[in-house]
Amino acid sequence: MILQIPTIRFLRIFHSRILNKTILKIAVPSSFGMISQTAVMITDTAMVGSLGVTEQAATGLGGMIFWTLISFLFGGSIGIQIIAARRIGENNRFSAGLILTTGLIFFSIFGAILAITGYIFSPFLITVLTNKAEILELAVPFLQIRFLGIIFYLLNAVFAGFYDATGKTYISMSSSIAIALTNIILNWIMIFGNAGAPALGVKGAALASSIAGLAGFSILIIFIFQKSFRPFFQKDTRRFKSSVLQEILKIGFAPAMEGFFMHLAFLMFYRLAANISTVSVAATNIVVSIMSISFMPGYAFGIAATTLMGQAMGAKKFKLAEFAVKRSVNYASMLMGSLGINFIIFRRQIISFFTEDPDVMNEAVTALIIVSLAQVGDAYQLVMSSALRGAGLVNWVLRINASVSFLIMLPAAYFAGITLGFGTAGLWSSVFIWLICLGLLFNYKFKKGDWKKGVV
Length: 456
What we know:
Helix content is 83%, strand content 0%. By secondary structure, the protein is mostly helical.
């Protein structure tokens, strides 16, 4: 009888209930949005990979630096989602509207400043990670071009945080699809010189991604004028308010630092891979691209957990919040666990999509198997951390993420990959440990129940 209880509870995700339908209504469009974003990463990696190992390593390093630096600002998007969801749960649409417009104005200004400074300091940022001339020659212009289009990605994040807080994640999905299609088409044109355009190689990949951000922004700005959003976007809410910005920064600072530290940890992870070999960097870039596929369900159901947690807590419905999170993590675990199994079974076929180089293939295969075994732990850490942020425990989640990343994951990566000489496989064994530890810690905190006291 004891063994049947968790099975029965898990099977509740297949029941036709209002809560399940609400979770899926939020998560499924988010999943499709993530599929679109993942398609961009995969096609970028595959198309650039066809140019050579050095090109793949250069875009991997440049891309990781780009996302590390702007991940701090993306915390503002998470802050917007958390606060807006809580205000909507409190039936305070005026405040939710002010959150959107204040965020748009602030990130427009800051994005322009970041574009200029990022372009100027791109050579320095690349040399921090590698001194290999062949990589520097390609990675520097790649990163500079990516910075020129950064403002649209920041504004997209602000809009997405607001739309996701309302539960209408299909809007973010539409933007993501537009970005993906634009990026893939422009990659085909600009990387290889099709349709009469010059072949720009790595520079073409960066330019395609920058322009694609504008396409996504165009979709998002259209939806705000829909009838259903008019209560949020009245004349009185179309202005900047410093007190609202302080609120966004207060809640968004911890998620911002969390994203920054996570990407910084992976920058150092890439640095360790670069110390091993260019092949190791290329293999790591491929595995990161593949794992972004399994990341999708966790991210999508994390959005559902954050939105429903915020709205339910705003309405003082704590039991509903608890049920929503548990169901969300069950959905994510089932999907991500299934993907992990398929990654192991079809590992060589999947990796062959990115590269035919036998050395890169062998390095990537072992790493993919290792990290695929931790997919359920990844599901728990993604959904539970999102839920705890939605409850207001942003600082606690930050401390745990930073501690596990820098005190456990990176030392383990150095010890196994460098000291013991296990190479790429040793590096990725540390990611397995990282995901399992985070999943256990976040699950423990949620079960403890003190998140019910969180204030936003």
